[in-house]
Automatic annotation (TrEMBL), chains A, B, C, D:
<comment type="similarity">
    <text>Belongs to the group II decarboxylase family.</text>
</comment>
<dbReference type="InterPro" id="IPR051151">
    <property type="entry name" value="Group_II_Decarboxylase"/>
</dbReference>
<dbReference type="Pfam" id="PF00282">
    <property type="entry name" value="Pyridoxal_deC"/>
</dbReference>
<dbReference type="GO" id="GO:0030170">
    <property type="term" value="F:pyridoxal phosphate binding"/>
</dbReference>
<dbReference type="InterPro" id="IPR015421">
    <property type="entry name" value="PyrdxlP-dep_Trfase_major"/>
</dbReference>
<dbReference type="InterPro" id="IPR002129">
    <property type="entry name" value="PyrdxlP-dep_de-COase"/>
</dbReference>
<feature type="modified residue" description="N6-(pyridoxal phosphate)lysine">
    <location>
        <position position="242"/>
    </location>
</feature>
<dbReference type="GO" id="GO:0004058">
    <property type="term" value="F:aromatic-L-amino-acid decarboxylase activity"/>
</dbReference>
<dbReference type="GO" id="GO:0019752">
    <property type="term" value="P:carboxylic acid metabolic process"/>
</dbReference>
<keyword id="KW-0210">Decarboxylase</keyword>
<dbReference type="InterPro" id="IPR015424">
    <property type="entry name" value="PyrdxlP-dep_Trfase"/>
</dbReference>
<keyword id="KW-0663">Pyridoxal phosphate</keyword>
<keyword id="KW-0456">Lyase</keyword>
<protein>
    <submittedName>
        <fullName>Histidine decarboxylase</fullName>
    </submittedName>
</protein>
Length: 414, 414, 414, 414
């Protein structure tokens, strides 16, 4: 084992597997309730499909061509793709597949974009997911980063400035629908306006909608920023294990056109090699198809509404005890808060920017009870305890750094 | 749905999910027994772990650093990595992770190689898996293809020729341990000799050992071609859903050194971003750890021996009825046969080169009974049926093309 | 035949040719009267020349050198070239040839421009014909697109901005005299002013005058925007099958100078290889020479005036029934209208931007009777029909989308 | 008019068109009989279709999608494409269109090849048609010329040498099926063997089969060199006005796969913009469909056989009078002869290399009578005329240069 690993970890490496499994089970059971910083919905019951879990399902190649072997779930893959593509108003001739996660989807989308425009410059914001920076490095694409507003949304004036400096080259723009830290949404209609004004018609707009793509697409286009194919996207990726609650990481990539060159049938597998990787997990399409089929548009829409209500409740409760908390927009599941004291973070798993700002992502499955308990714990931690002179108020506040005023946006909502 | 899909498929797209699931179950049940052309072992029972299947396990980031969230299985990932790395004689300081499949492993290995040698030329054979060609295209690496022998093994003289034309540039060589069509193994000791002779010290040798890596590594180094780190590999990838029998596609990448530059902790997840993709399936490490732990070296070694015995039996039985069949080497699970008549292929799923050559991959789980039934079916198809004058012998032989003699290798074994 | 073709089409593929010819004749006869969206003049009678139609006429090589074989019509080609070159005020030493269409002319002109200035940047507007984008892609020329006004004319300020960013490189500017959608005309005098102001003397200005070149050139230079050689063009292409009414697609390219380097005589054909393609259609020069010879300047000028009068009549009639309709300038043959209801478009073939805007091109041959019938059909479609309760007004209006006000130009004329 | 043109020519430029037309008719009538050096078949009667000649037929965009306007002949285009694609054993998914000539087809094919392999090197022989050199110059593709044998066929050893020097780059190989001067045919099976031996799998083989594609494809593959899709072609172009006898230059391009990226429907025309140029002549598809439909495989096969018989007759007759004459192979229509004396060439239009070698192309339509008359004229010219002492034998023999022995190939046939 690598020398960087802790001694603790090394120790358990050598125990019997059975003993380690017991500890693993205990840890997971305890952790789920307090894991509120990462966006995996926990309200979907997959029990119906567990009978398949022990059998190899391998979706080799293109989802639209079954291939030689029978142990695949492409029929279910096509069902979930159709649901998502229609929701995202994809044009006739759209294509897509279920990926191992949003990162693979973004890498494949940018690979297709580079094949279409080999000399393009790629533009994305400083709030974009790290997978975007990794993808352009892998693909060797020239890149310009775009500034964001204080809340993490793309600064469209800055986009105009940098694209305006490279009008001799095609543009690949990566917009984010739901940034990791604040769930900010880059508005595709603004991106389109910038590119139109600069006459950059050689363009590919990819949307990393891992977090917020499905929930926003369930709203009327008038109620939400531009994010889908009708708003100007050429490709879009969502996560399958966030709002859709799949029990293993996965994603869905949809593109406006079928990848080219069409590679033809590969004799070995009998299906065209159009995806980024070869063998693909056949369980995740089954799980996703089951979820969208059972819930439908109405069920998903209702889940999103309930989760947002919990998020709104959280902001009000936290504000009630005087702790800074806000949401970027009324559709956000993410509540940004000042990083709580360490004692609270020892119990509750939050995520954050590593400095003064943390967040909770109110995916379906987080209850009002959980947020009430969290607020109570925070309140307790903030209250001076006269019986214990060793702990001062200041100690209890963790870093104690005040959130800079400029990071509390004017548009923040509850 | 895309217009290229068959009408049949479209029809079932609109059925109820429950009805479709029933048909799916029937299809899978019937297909398993006859699916002998693709290398997924079917003898591993994963029932013990099914209780985890419905729960999100997400191994974000580096396997050696747990990160903030608790719902991961990195402890198991480290156990299976250690087992595999030791088996492959990886040096101190090795690194690795469980991937979504061998394709991701190869792409990441070549990405690391390009980061180490940005001006390298990549060499691989015409028998290499298509994932290699895709990886070098994604990575924009200059490439030279190397000829193979008639049996699909790298032509080392040709390697010397082409590397000799580019001694001013570092070399990335991809060797295959178990090609898709014939299970040929490129011998790393020969590759090393070529590179040494040409004094190309700036080198990265990656081994795509998806199919044969583990079974060959279980043998003594004297009994098998060079393939592991002690034989000269800088990175090596194996499949988890082939010999190791995982029920969903996965792979294991091992590299001789930890990725450089070390990216440091990512605040959001609390684990360094060292892998190709972000969120990673946490179920496959658990399944793989369970398998290697339960079986151990002895159990895996015994399984491999038994499967090879079945393969040898198959060659003898097929030769017994006069049907051309051979194995590339005595450790091969793959039996290459002349493509059988269509009536046989309607029942048995084989893979092949799309022309006159097909193969069966005798992964653990294929029984003597299955091969006997296959041989009987083939024999029946070849026997003239006097009671049915409509069918002649010639009709029954499918393409009827004789395997060209030069494709029957001198080294072929039974 | 390719799988993408409709079943209907496939069916007729297998009928007897005679039967298919009969259906073809019927279709064409019926279609001509209603085909008002595409700019092919239909008033020229070519009967005199039909006796040549069955004989191979092949204008291999340069129009100025006859070559070895006699079966060419270069004498006629030179006659029509001279007429057009004089009309366009081409300088002494001009050159040209009859092409297979304006697209070939633009490709050849830009090829000559790139040979003159290998490091040039090419500038053209977003309203330019797709053949320009294709040509620069074929030629691998760096490109910057220039914004247009709402009416589709080049935004000269934007041209100044982008040329100003690349003053270190020669400029190839493509101006359009008659854009496809609105018949906007880029004014060469403005283009010249921009290039002069920026001191970009290394320039090549190509004019894609496919639609409007001849009719505008028949006017006094004071009455029309700058478009010809005296206004700054280095090359200019017109269509032969639009205003000039040739019965097969063709074009005329004129350049200010003879192609350089002069390739000398090619022994095989006996004529220099100065054109883009080799064998060239010898019928179209004959047809074009016949047309310009018979009509002369006066005849062509009169035809253009009559056609513009019909266009003006159409705008007044359409406005009379309240349907939005406008022309870009008083010399335009193109009337832009709000896209009519589907029932109207089922009968009349219009062209458009695929959204809310369509157009009619009033080439010579369209009669007042046709436009009156069209307006009557439109009026009927807009009138509620009380006797048929199944059809509401709203249904009858097709997309019903109102033309956005910003697309109605201030300069619009009737 | 340009100063390079002869004074004679200028004079006729100013005559009345009617007078010029009369002279033109006379010239054509007299010339046809003696125009035996250029390969246009003259035996096809197109009278049935002349009624269409005066009407605009414009096949805008892709042949498989009709588009908005009705005045096209795409149905006939699809018929002739299907006939040719089947004859050339094109794979499922083939695509093609009727071009303005073979030059356009080659340019488009190489454009598609460069899009597929942007870094490719293009290889073609010194006997290739000048359109190939022009295409690679237009496309800016790196190029290596390959030596030919004395007869004009590709030297495959030299191909191996030069491709072997660039194995790090994809290869575009242009093979010629019927070179201009000797009708030599580059054997695709040899080309494939070279590329296979060098492991150059990233390849695009284009066949310029302008002259001999159809006649050779009518033979059994065993009787002729490799030239079609089953022999390894990725694209292939034939002429429509040579063996197929169309009365205006045209060609047919077929590719193994549909062009990508699929550009989608263009609103303006309603058909994808997949061809090199935009508006395309709709008369030539009609003429070609009529020819292949009326003649069918049998008729075309018989015509080819008859024409070859005339060619064989010519070689025997010429040899009979001692004049050097040979054919490259028994399927050739081209008879290469020593360039005859000037007095013969004043009457008979030959083509040649501009030095000592000329040729006659025995396309269908040339009669035994014509060849007998030609041989008689040649014999007369070679016979000393004692009554005219001013003319010596040497004068009568034109250049008098003897064909170098190495240019008379061992394989020459009669």
């Amino acid at each position: 084992m690598n020398a960087d690993v802790d001694a603790d970890v090394d120790a358990s490496l050598d125990g019997s597997l059975d003993a380690v499994l017991v500890g693993f089970a205990d840890r997971l059971r305890q952790a789920t309730r307090f894991n509120i910083g990462f966006p995996g919905a926990t309200d979907i019951d997959h029990t119906d499909l567990l009978s398949w879990a022990g059998r190899l399902l391998n979706n080799v190649g293109d989802p639209d061509v079954d291939g030689l072997a029978a142990n695949h779930s492409k029929l279910f893959e096509r069902r979930v793709l159709r649901f998502v593509a229609e929701l995202l108003r994809a044009p006739v001739g759209w294509w897509g597949y279920v990926t191992s996660g949003a990162s693979e989807g973004t890498l494949h989308a940018l690979y297709l974009a580079r094949r279409r425009y080999p000399k393009a410059v790629c533009y994305y914001t400083t709030a974009a997911h790290p997978s975007v920076a990794k993808a352009v490095d892998i693909l060797n694409v020239d890149t310009v980063l775009v500034r964001t507003t204080a809340c993490g949304e793309m600064d469209y004036h800055d986009l105009a400035t940098v694209v305006g400096q490279h009008r001799d080259r095609p543009a690949i723009v990566v917009a984010t629908a739901g940034t990791t830290l604040t769930e900010a949404v880059d508005d595709l209609r603004e991106v389109e306006a910038v590119l139109d004004e600069l006459a950059v018609t050689r363009r590919w707009v990819h949307v990393d909608a891992a977090l917020a793509g499905i929930p926003l697409a369930l709203l009327s286009p008038d109620e939400r920023p531009g994010l889908d194919f009708a708003d100007g996207a050429h490709s879009l990726v969502i996560s399958g294990h966030k709002f859709l609650g799949a029990p293993m990481p996965c994603g869905i990539l949809v593109t406006a056109t079928r990848p080219n060159p069409a590679p033809g049938l590969v004799p070995y597998s009998g299906s065209p090699d159009t995806t980024l990787l070869g063998s693909r997990n056949g369980h995740t399409p089954l799980l996703l198809a089951h979820t969208v089929d059972r819930l439908g548009w109405e069920g998903l829409h209702a889940r999103a509404g309930q989760a947002r209500a919990v998020a709104g409740h959280a902001v009000r409760r936290l504000s009630g005890i005087g702790w800074p908390a806000w949401r970027q927009h009324p559709h956000a599941f993410t509540v940004v808060i000042r990083t709580p004291p360490q004692v609270v973070r020892d119990k509750w798993v939050l995520a954050g920017d590593g400095r003064d700002s943390s967040h909770i992502v109110f995916m379906p499955g987080i209850t009002l009870g959980q947020i009430d308990e969290f607020v109570a714990d925070l309140h307790t931690a903030l209250t001076p305890r006269p019986t214990d002179p060793r702990q001062s108020i200041v100690d209890g506040r963790g870093s104690g750094v005040v959130v800079p005023p400029q990071r509390v946006p004017a548009r923040a909502v509850t």
